[in-house]
Amino acid sequence: MKKTLTVFFACVLLASANAQYNVDDFTSNLDSFLEELNAATPDNAVTGGKWSDAYIGQLLGVPPHFGVGASAGLSRFPAKGLYDVFNALDLEFPVDSEDLVMPTAGIEARIGGIVFPFDAGIRMMVIPETTMNDLTFDYILFGIDARYPIIKGNIVLPAVSVGLGYTYLGGSVGTSVTSSQITGIDMGEWETSEDLAVSFKASVIDVSAQVSKGLFLITPYAGLGATMAFAESSYTVGPLNKTVSANPFGARVYGGLSFNLLVLKIDSTVMYNFMSENWAINLGTRVQL
Predict the structure, then answer these.
(1) From 14, 50, 103, 135, which residue has the greatest number of CB atoms within 10 Å?
(2) What's the pLDDT band for 181 if we cut at 50, 70, 90?
(3) What does pTM read for this prediction?
(4) How far apart are CA 89 and CA 21, in angstroms?
(5) How far is residue 13 from each of residues 131, 139, 278, measured CA to CA in Å?
(6) Which of 1, 171, 159 has the alpha carbon at shortest distance from 75?
(7) Whether the Cβ atoms of residue 97 and residue 79 lie closer than 8 Å to each other
(8) What are phi and psi of 153, to 5 degrees?
């Protein structure tokens, strides 16, 4: 995310210094960028958090069933809006397509249910406001979910569960520019230095169904998921500003396998959203009883 939006800032400065680039086209491309950001952040939010076991069991068992770990991944980010900015300025886009990738990471924990058959998980990642190379950014991810086992699984049968979850993702990236850097756009009266920023947030409701089968050293798994998101993103460049909201729906398939080394599990997952055509990959490791 940081690298993606750093590219965006470079576009803004270069575009604003080019008086031949129509401002209406410039802001139109930035509006498209916000729409793409709204469509991509929900997929980024639900990347990870799906452990290989469709159901981990009850907490009050022998041994008790719970686990903690961490994961990191990447998801596709369509960036035609940015691509059009580069194209209009006759600049080379950083990659050979109109797509970039968005990173994601999180600390995860899951605990088995008490009395009733279910398990519940939590996932979070927080980067407080940080300044690095004249770039200020912050990021927060928080998710919770619960799963109910339709089939608990045994030596013969796989485990099958259905789940419901909620994830919030938000953040911003900003820097400071001077009025002399923005000569191609009439910025009106403003201070010598102004903030240039992009912010984004998404609340995502997710329902899923998953099947898994433990095979001693590996556990293959597969699932289906559907999401409804409430997303909003905005940019501010001096007096230019815009906020775009959207409610994208998603329908995805995901799957992978984990390698099981006693209580240590190393997980890999791939995901594809049929509606946004976004993909994601995720790798994680955890200690699980």
Answers:
(1) 50
(2) very low
(3) 0.84
(4) 7
(5) 19, 24, 29
(6) 1
(7) no
(8) 90, 145
Higher per-residue confidence, 8 vs 235: 235
Ranked by mean pLDDT, the top range of 86-95, 123-132, 138-147 is: 138-147
At 128 the pLDDT is 85
Instruction: At 135, list the tokens.
Output: 């770039």
Please state which CATH number belongs to domain 2-288.
2.40.128
Query: Position of tokens 């993909």?
Result: 279
Tokens of residue 272, six digits? 């594809």
DSSP string, the chain: -HHHHHHHHHHHHHHHT-TTS-HHHHHHHHHHHHHHHHHHHHHHHTSS---S-S---BSSSSS--EEEEEEEEEEEEE-HHHHHHHHHTT---SSSSSEEEEEEEEEEEEEEBSSSS-EEEEEEEEEEEEEETTEEEEEEEEEEEEEEEEE---SSSPEEEEEEEEEEEEEEEEEEEEGGG--SS---S--SEEEEEEEEEEEEEEEEEEEE--BTTEEEEEEEEEEEEEEEEEEEETTEEEEEEE--EEEEEEEEEEEEETTEEEEEEEEEETTT--EEEEEEEEEE-
Per-residue pLDDT tens for 221-262?
A: 999 999 999 999 998 776 778 899 999 999 999 999 999 998
Calculate the alpha carbon distances from 242 to 27, 45, 135, 149 in Å.
9, 23, 21, 45
Tokens of 276: 């946004």
Name the one residue in this structure whose structure tokens are 């770990």: 69
Contact 202, 38 (CB under 8 A): yes
